[in-house]
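--- STAGE predict ---
source: upstream dedup step, 1 unique chain passed
mode: sequence only
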Amino acid sequence: MDTERHIFYRALVRLFKYKPAKCTAILENISDPGILFRMSGKQLAECGFTKDEITGLKNRELLENTKKSLEWEKANGIEEILYTDNRYPETLLQTYGYPPCLLKKGCGKIDMKRKTVAIVGTRKPTRYGISACASIIKRLVEMPSPPVIISGLAEGIDFHAHMHALDAGLPTIGISATGHDRIYPACNTELFREVSSNGLILSEYENGTRASKFHFLQRNRIIAGMSDAVIIIESRIRGGAMNTANHAFSFNREVFAVPGRVGDMCSEGCNMLIADNKAHILNSFEHFMKIMDWDMSNKEYICTGKTNMRSLEERDKHIIAKYLHEEGPHAIPEIAKYTGLDERTLFSKLAEMEIEGILELGSGNEYKLASEYDDRY
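--- STAGE serialize ---
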């Protein structure tokens, strides 16, 4: 695609970013997207464009900003994957409203045709949810051809899904709800670095796009659309994970939910999905494999991924800091109970964090998050 045509193409994607289905329909029916920018307002109206769309097409800043974005992407190693590209995820093409363009950052070594499992859930998981996430990924890595783990780069279950995948040597893809020049939430900066260094981060948004509720909802359809199976670990009745589950259900994907105790608010969403027959109950890995009809007969497979000890250490520190931010100062026994770390290991972690100025030891031998770090969480 020549440079000028490329700018027109991406300008249309930018203009119709909240109407992806309309954008792809337009691109399917014109050979040269530049023609729309040369048409008069009257001609565009006759073609069915709305007043706001015509204003956008006539706004010269649209082309100027698009050109700047393309230059920024090139300078920062961001690759584009157009929906016509054979690298575009096939499963996503099967859904309604798929993005006409995905922007990719990362190592670029993940086969998009590989099996994919999305793992999403609450931003405030319990020890039960964190343990379930670790157990699921531990079993997935035992598969003859382990799947790619997809999640949304958010706090909570998303964070643990990505980090456990990295620790186990599984490929992972993060779907961002912002442009690649923005990291949200800021406390997951290290997670973004780890995923982009060892996996991929995909976004449909150009640089400069900030986080918003609608962007997260749009992001969720990509997570669901790219996945062969979607696993929900702890979710309230309303929330992003439930939105992802509903997208997956509408796309005819296999949805699984980890059941929780009756009356536990963190599991209300999962239990409701199971009760409404929108999700299979995930009570054993064997049941998961049976539903997915995936072969486990090849027992000679050995995962070549190496545990990323730096990622593991950062994850433990993040969990401790997040807990103290939300629950306030606590002594070692309470922190050990929450994190699942033995007291000897935990003492070492706390000492490191105290030296680094992340934690402070207050009265009563209770640790608290330093004020400058408290603002980050």
